[in-house]
Amino acid sequence: MPIRLPRRPARSPEQRRLAAAQWTITWRISLVMSVIMLIVGGIVYTVVLFAQRADAERETQWGIDHNTVESPPVCVWMTVERDGAVSSTPGTPAGLPVRSSLAAVRAGAPPVLERVERGGEQYTVRTARRGPELVQAAYGERFQRADRNHLLLAFAAAEAVGLLLVAAASGMLARRSMEPLSEALDRQRRFVADASHELRTPLTQLHTRAQLLARRCGSETPQQLSTDLQRLVTGTRQLGDVIDDLLLSARLSQSPGSRDPVDLTALAEEAVSAEDVRAQEMGLAVRLRPGPGRHVVVGTGPALRRVIAALVDNAMGHTPPGGEVTVSVDTPLPGIVSLSVRDTGVGFAPEEAARLFERFARGSAGRGRRFGLGLALAREVVESHGGRITAEGRPGHGALFTVELPAARVVGETVPRERTIASCLSVGGRRPDVPGG
After folding, report:
1. CA distance 382 to 385
2. Helix, strand, or coil here: 59?
């Protein structure tokens, strides 16, 4: 039976564009570095060429001034004409001396410096008078040309190796630079998919209830119509809660909002008072235990109020009747304000602590409609305020959620403690998120 290898999942258009952008960045960086290396190599070659030319001219001038046919400088062939007699260094290459230059200087022309080619070799030739003598020094550039060829070969090898290294390095850097963008696109796709899924359910419920209500209109009793309308209102509130969480999350990612002194004890009092009626209906005790002193942080009041309300609501949703939810505000360390919500509910496994703060993470325990956004939003709010949120728990032994925020350094400032009705969370019917708090 043939073995079928798993097929690689098809890449999305965004992934293909990211891959194309990565290759574009790689070859552009490689091209730029290659051009830079060529320019540097050209500059070095030009400098070496001019240095060799200057060296050749210097050697010929030295030979004209000091040397004889029998003792020429290295790579120099001397020719001396005196009283019509011409003598040259033994082994002078064919084609030397340059007799036209000797004739010109003999006729009274100024010293001649020229580059000539004889037998496939380049020579720098200087012709001038030295007292009663007519002297010509020819410098052979064979070794200079060999040095330049070696330099070109070294540049070519360096260019090839450097291009490979640059391509590999630029590819790696391009891939790493694209990873955050790829992860952001993946998160965006997952978020859109999850949000669409979460919004579809309450919208479907609303549509169905509205249809039933339209069909029953005129045939149902006022009590039945009131019940159906109440369910419709509850559904719209749940849908509004999801949208509010999404909007607040989007605003936090763009701008943290205005920051003012906020009393966490006052916000905790509001959250506990807002749940009085629902706690009685559920048979729960929700208590506040403020620590001594003031517990003031700098932040956005509505966002922090939503964090506390979400933690309290989550704890109530996972605590059975007869249980207790305790909200504590304290200053465990100088400069730190701590708010904790402890319950006596179903708890959760310790290894699930990190997963509780993921978006749309929901468990099977707990009561009420759970959308999995409250704890994720709470973490975003806390982290945007420079704090942290942690969760502890054991199955069957309740859970503890702790928020730690930097304390406000406010001297002599009065922080308003009045209760505000316009809370970011609905008073009755706020849904829990995941098991354990």
Report:
1. 5
2. helix
Q: Could you give the count of Cα atoms lying within 13 Å of 117 in the half-sphere of its Cβ?
A: 3
pLDDT tens for residues 258-297? 678 999 999 999 889 888 888 888 899 999 999 998 899 9
The confidence score (pLDDT) of residue 84 equals: 86
For residue 287 the two structure tokens come to: 């208590």
CA angle 408, 411, 417 (to 5 degrees): 65
Cα separations in angstroms, 290 against 5, 176, 329, 343, 401:
61, 48, 5, 16, 16
Structure tokens at 187: 């998160």
Give the pLDDT confidence score for residue 171 in this predicted structure.
Answer: 82
Spell out the long-range contacts of 230-238 with Cβ–Cβ below 8 A and sequence spacing 24 or more: 232/206, 234/429, 235/202, 235/205, 235/206, 235/209, 236/206, 237/426, 237/429, 238/202, 238/369, 238/371, 238/429, 238/431
Q: Where do the H-state alpha helices sit in 87-141?
A: 99-106
CB contact at 8 A, 96 and 79: yes
Is this model's pTM higher than 0.85 or not? no
Q: Are 280 and 325 within 8 A, CB to CB?
A: no
Residue with more model confidence, 12 or 262: 262
Distance of CA 258 to the CA centre of its chain: 27
The answer to whether the beta carbons of residues 389 and 378 sit under 8 Å apart is: yes
SS (H, E, C) 366-396: CCCCCCCCHHHHHHHHHHHCCCEEEEEECCC
Residues 19, 8: Cα–Cα separation, whole Å: 16
